[in-house]
Specification:
The chain is 12% helix and 30% strand. It is mainly beta and 207 residues long. Among the domains are: 69 residues, Urease metallochaperone UreE, N-terminal domain (HSP40/DNAj peptide-binding domain), CATH 2.60.260; 69 residues, UreE, C-terminal domain (Alpha-Beta Plaits, 2-Layer Sandwich).
């Protein structure tokens, strides 16, 4: 099995040794087993990235290059006039968060998507004419896949801080104050004052 491990983006058909034709539902996957158009067993071991588009190259471990081709599959093409009608149609369908292919030809502008009755009803409400047919479905790449050269940077920061503070304060303050004040004051004040005043006046007058 030939292991395809690297995305090369759009390549010239002459640089590929084989081709791999896939429908849209398989071109969104980075890992799968398949057979090339020549019958060679293949395995895709790709990092996460954008949808594989028609004309993209994949490089194998041994250096061989395989070119991706979009398969013919059932699609719905909604046609409106170019300009504001096309912009309005693309805007409202895009708000449904679905993959859309956009384009224009001599008949006007068109938006293409896989069969979906909800999208079809919405497109008709916006004045589009629907065409059910088989064609390649190669949706618009997201703008985020083009800005910065198509690099996807994922930064995951997980900061876990666990602080367990257990403070056990056991304060046992026993204050036993026993004051025994015994004051025994025995004051015996004996004051004896004896004042004896004897005045004897004897007058004897003998005539």
């Amino acid at each position: 099995m030939l292991k395809l491990i690297e995305r090369l983006g759009p390549i010239d058909a002459s640089t590929a040794s084989d081709t791999l034709t896939l429908p849209f539902e398989l071109r969104i996957r980075g890992r799968l087993k398949a057979e090339s158009d020549s019958g060679q067993p293949l395995g895709l071991f790709l990092d996460r990235g954008p949808v594989l588009r028609d004309g993209d190259g994949l490089k194998a471990e041994n250096g061989e290059i395989v070119r991706v081709c979009a398969a013919i599959e059932p699609v719905v093409t909604a046609r409106v006039s170019t300009g504001l009608p096309l912009a309005r149609l693309a805007y409202h369908l895009g708000n449904r968060h679905v993959q859309l292919a956009l384009g224009e030809d001599q008949q006007g502008g068109w938006v293409r998507f896989p069969p979906d009755h909800v999208l079809e009803e919405l497109a008709e409400l916006l004045g589009a004419t629907l065409e059910h047919h088989n064609a390649t479905f190669d949706p618009e790449p997201g703008a985020y896949n083009q800005v910065g050269g198509g690099h996807s940077h994922g930064h995951g920061h997980s900061h876990g801080h666990g602080h367990s503070h257990a403070h056990d304060h056991d304060h046992d303050h026993a204050h036993d104050h026993e004051h025994d004040h015994e004051h025994d004051h025995d004051h015996d004040h004996g004051h004896g004052h004896g004042h004896g005043h004897g005045h004897g006046h004897g007058h004897s007058h003998a005539h």
